[in-house]
Design a protein that fits this description.
Elements (H helix, E strand, L loop, with lengths): L2 H4 L6 E2 L5 H11 L3 E6 L4 E6 H9 L9 H4 L6 E2 L5 H11 L3 E6 L2 E7 H8 L9
Parallel strand pairs: 1-2, 4-5
Antiparallel strand pairs: 2-3, 5-6
Length: 130
């Protein structure tokens, strides 16, 4: 099975000036655990995850003044839609992260998460009568 079969095509893209609260609201509304941060002035694509927001809050930082750009991971491993799920899982395991931005050409076409991979690998839940 390929990354293109498992990835979510709902790609939330935000700018580096979004506050962490704004990012959290957008992520929550779209039921996603990560946002692609597009910074056209410098590093290009990065990723902001729910863990990044949680870490900031744990440090006592203000989510209304902290920006996505300050907490964005810019050293990102990208996946191709043609990667196997094994390749994606290996990259995540090796890098210690749970999301991969999927690039096709120059832009993001999806995000694949550990949850997406598990959903594909695990058999569908069966309702067992009591």
């Amino acid at each position: 099975m390929l990354v293109s079969d498992a990835m979510s095509t709902v790609v939330l893209t935000i700018g580096p000036a979004h506050t962490l609260r704004q990012a959290a609201r957008l992520m929550s509304a779209r039921h996603v655990g990560a946002a692609v941060v597009l910074d056209e002035d410098s590093s290009g694509l990065g990723i902001l995850t729910e863990r990044d927001i949680l870490n900031s809050l744990a440090l006592g930082q203000n989510p209304d003044s902290e920006t996505a750009g300050t907490h964005t991971t810019t050293d990102v491993v990208f996946a191709a839609p043609t990667w196997t799920l094994e390749e994606a899982a290996s990259a995540m395991s090796h890098g210690g992260f749970r999301h991969l931005i999927v690039l096709d050409g120059n832009g993001p076409v999806g995000i694949v998460s550990v949850r997406d991979i598990i959903r594909c690998w695990a058999p569908a839940r069966q309702h067992v009568p009591a």
